[in-house]
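Have a close read of the entry that follows and walk me through the local backbone shapes. See right below:
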Amino acid sequence: MSEFSPGKTQTFVVWTAILASSMVFADGAIVTVAIPQVRESLQASLSEMQWITNAYALTLSAFLLLGGAAGDAYGLRRVFMVGIACFGLTSLWCGLSGSAGMLIAARTFQGIGGALLVPGSLALISAHFPKEARGRAIGTWAAASAIAAALGPILGGWLIDIGPWQAIFWINGPIAALALWLCWTRVPESPVASQAAMDWLGAVLAVAALGLVAYGLTALGDRGSYRIVAILSTLAGLAVLGLFLRHEKRCAAPMMPLDLFRVPAFANVNVLTLLLYFALGGALFFLPTALIEAHGYSAARAGSVFLPFTLVMAVLSRLGGVLADRFGTRLLLTVGPLVTGLSFALLAPAVLHGGYWAAVVPVMAVLGLGMGITVAPLSTTVMNAVPDERIGVASGVNNAVSRVAGLIAVAGLGIVATLGFRRAAAWAKPEMADLFAQASFGARPPMAGPSMDGSADIYAAAMIGGFGLVTLICAAAAVASAWFGYRSAQA
């Protein structure tokens, strides 16, 4: 590795991190575009589709904490490469799945691979750049990763329209191979903490807690589930979460050191992350299905609505990093979430209108504006709030918070989407309320079709109503996050 100058090494570090992390970032959006096709192909229920997303988010969320600590303990580069290999192989497994259960299992292990590589991508950048240059480097990473991620839903939608949905997972194979080669040949290893212990019990407790909460929230929205079981599962998850926090407080080498949250900037920026990514994960999970089912969008067209969002975010993320280095982060972390909240509020009338260029694309561009202002300052605040030797675990904690937020959003907002779906159908045509009361968001009720008078229009109205209720909650969460952005850093 010594033949490369520090400048060239830094360039290779950034682009290797971009290639690897873009797979993880693109994967969630690609799957949301594929929901109608996967649901029909595997004869899956709404709760199974939620679990195809949540199984990935669950292990990604829980093991991100361990992934960050593992990088600090065993070497950022080594753990990063293991994560890339695991993600690539499990992506192939996802593509070979022939049932909802098998796909859920594959997605569970895919999340573990993502958990090992995601904190490593930011931590490697932080390890090879001085503090005064991190904002620009992180902005470059965020911008380029966003562009790569933007192409994912479009390519995925196109693959779904012309061939099997399984191909959306197979495309990760070549990307993983290239990222592995670059990391092996161009990225130097970072120092390893001696005699570092791994918090395996903490990881198990985190998975159990998040899994029980996610199951409970998902089951609450599933008509076939016992409500008392769902409630007890949620309460049990919260109890296990309490045990996890108690264990982390007493553990000699916790994967989520609670003392980090004594730093006001770190604590506030993580609450911001929780609220903002709850809103983002919830709205973007249900958006493609609403457009496909209510307005007849093709998968490729529904995937392309992510393009203005990610492109605007990509351009502004680099600028946001420069501005964060120069002016501080308070203003950016206040204005960004407020703009994002406005865009969520505008998504409901945009989907009601249904026009691609006239309604949906402009609102998605506003969403990109809000997130673009926020992402780089948020990451910079996290990295600068902790000592250099703890950047790996700090990155893992913040990424875990964002994934937990998405997990809770997909699990919990399914109830909201279905409630809005049924109420909107009953409002549109009261005499068909009983028929639609048997259906859930994204699933046509029995006997509903063109042969039934106006049922297609009622179904479209129900989809729009369900999505609209979701976006209102997401808007409120994003606006609330602005307060914690204001408190997270000094101007």
Summary: Residues 6-199+253-430+459-488 form a domain with the Growth Hormone; Chain: A; fold (CATH 1.20.1250.20). The chain has two domains: 6-199+253-430+459-488, 200-252. The two ends are 40 Å apart (CA to CA).
